[in-house]
Amino acid sequence: MGEGTARTTCPYCGVGCGVVAQADGRAMRVSGDEAHPANAGRLCSKGSALGSTVGLEGRLLAPAIGARQASWREATALVARRFSETIDRHGPDSVAFYVSGQLLTEDYYAANKLMKGFIGSGNIDTNSRLCMASAVTAHKLAFGADLVPGCYEDLDLADLVVFSGHNAAWTHPVLFRRMEAARARGQRHVVLDPRRTDTAEVADLHLALAPQTDVRLWNGLLADLLRRGAVDRGYIAAHLAGFAEVMAALAAEDQSLHAVARDCGVAEADLATFFRWFAETPRTVSLFSMGANQSTQGVAKGLAILNAHLATGRIGKPGACPFSITGQPNAMGGRETGGMATTLAAHMDFDAAARARLARFWGAQRVAERPGLMAVEMFDAVADGRIKAIWIMATNPVVSLPDAGRVREALAGCPFVVVSDCMAATDTMAFAHVKLPALAWGEKDGTVTNSERRISRQRAVMPPPGEARADWRIIADVASAMGHGEAFGWRSPAQVFREWARLTAYENIDRPLNLGPLAALSPDAYDALEPVQWPVTGSGGTARLFADGRFATPDGRARMQPLRSAGPAVAVDAAYPLALNTGRVRDHWHTLTRTGLAPELCRHTPEPFVEVHPADAEAVGIADGALTRVQTAQGEAVVIAQLSDRQRPGDLFMPMHWTAAFAPSGRANPLVGACVDARSGQPEFKHTPARIRPYRETWRGFFLAREGWAAPAGLDLIWRRIPQTGCQLHEFAGRGDEREREALRLALARGATAAPLRFEDVSAGVLREAHLAGERLDRVMFTTTQGALPPRDWLVELFAAEALGAQDRAALLIGRAPGRIVQAGPMVCACLGVRAQRIAAAIAEGADSLEAIGESTGAGSNCGSCRPEIARLLKAPTGAEVRHAA
Ligand code: SF4
Fold this sequence. Notes:
Helices cover 31% and strands 19% of the residues. A 7-stranded mixed β-sheet has the order 5-4-16-15-14-6-7, sandwiched between helices. A 6-stranded mixed β-barrel has the order 21-25-22-24-23-26. It is an alpha/beta fold. The structure holds iron/sulfur cluster. The site of iron/sulfur cluster has 14 residues, from α1 and α7.
């Protein structure tokens, strides 16, 4: 590796792809690491665009106290003093840490050690609570510990893959590409999902089950396996407990094919096909992710999947396992080190022996006695004053938690809020009394664990910018200032990692999470550490768990769990007759803090939307593309309606990424109720009763400028910011009269030095105004009260010109690009920048397969996450409008 080059790991999803990063100053080129076992050189659109996200735009580069810059010494001392005073006055449970799957394992370890070992509270929880806490609880109940049995190779080897609430084509594209390759040799795909997602679109079978009927369906499958004699009686007798109780629970409900199909809202013949395929296919992997976990029945859904695999002995074998896939790059690291409030470090629980063991290992006097508050409870406690000081690390709960408006109010009223983050202006940062600048990806150095228990290195390839510091060091400095210097005296991430690895092996008789051989890594060996799956033994990593049928319970038997299906926490009713489901889009990540910096990632799904079945839209007079109010008992959003039969009648879908900085009216999580699974604490993001209404704007328009913009105070506008190359596009709409438009026009023109190019047609409600800085276009605004607005692409291109010619100036006034208007259409392949129009042209010229389109345009030939969309374009009638169905 050359200077400024490192083999590192992608910071986005739980696949954990290896990345080769080459930095030159703040510029970076990335490629897939061919030697990394998770991806063998592949990257998806997000990973491929990492180089666009490592600039210093928007970074927090120095500590701040209130609005003023502060030294590290001053900020650290203040955090330590306020936490110590709060603990002295109100006890250890009056403080909390809310952390993130973006943290490295070393950071997580340090934060957990401080809170659970030295502050003496369990109040540290991670945003991973929002994505896979239900799977963690299911694993512990069934296996005795939070253990993911399988590995990615199982996805290559399986003959049947069941995707349960998992849109892998979009959320884990590199894994999906592996499975696509396996499909070419006959692997079958079955998708269980209320939506016809891109994964479902190309599957062999899609069961669009009614929301919250997963347990009913998996119970029905188990009953069917029993009827067929397809369970493994020998395995059950030798390795399982609880089978009789499960049989009794199944018998309490009508498990006939007809009854299960009716209750799940799927065709009986399709259900029969799934049951038959499952029964006949020993090599089956069942993937489950947010669609299963984010529910008040999340634990039961996970257990129902585990039951089916346990009863058939399909676990611990090549190509056969239940497989929880994580959303974040280091959600697993948090689970391991105790980043969740419900566990101590290294998979230990709060029993006396484990607490004493940790006290001995850490030399700690006050190890937490009981589990702490889980994410939603934690912010409830902030709201009602039980928590008086909170430190939020590398996450944005003001956007990402359910009932996010209430989280906003809670933080606004909290006496002391610390936020450590690499970004300066997240929605959460606005509530910080102390802001601490953390390192970002490309600067950090440490380890992460992916969904298959594989530990990989994230390596620094750029120097720390400004005064930013590693999270583990920020935590250690605060711990030292609180009087715990001896226990937090690390000087490098390698030292933190070695201590962590030693803990996993400490007095370890039967804990599978064991990194013992890594405890003696030299600094050089740590630096060179190759990806390895825990448990780590003298001979290396471990691909599969439970191969010998022995589980992590006291008697070695897995526990099957009797389950009853139940409805959602809050049912739809006459006031809110629709069910709102929230989730991700293909090219965005979490709250846009990173992918919002890459214009190429903003083109596939440029703005927030609500996907609605056409019948539901027609019932309330909403047309495709219309601004639509989505209302729940918690709040309201206004977003574009996308009418699609990919949605079940009665269901809505909204993406969860947009924040106040990008689309204040497009935020999904303020709409979501704060109902959680009682056992896992995971919120129900997939089912909130809702209704839709037309927004009925009186005018709309757009504004392009070199800089981002926030709506002027006092104007009640719906606006969305869409980053472009070289400028920012703002779409907006209002319900006022011409005075509202004029107030906006004056605000946008503020500071302009020369008279604008201007066209106004009052009778048609049309206004166009362009400002130049010298000869260059500086900002442009178009509005209309009726009629259409022109395509934005040609205007975006004008921002790149050094000088506007006479033809361009005339075009601005006419409101139309010179010559024939060619709309490139929405972005389909973000990796190679191929838009819909180009693909349509290739199809018109005779490209009639995914391969032919790949050869002609390049589209779909990199990560492949756009291949289902290309397949849809291939199937579309000639001349059909090209549009995403997200
Ligand atoms: Fe990153 Fe994409 Fe790989 Fe996930 S699939 S780790 S987002 S490159």
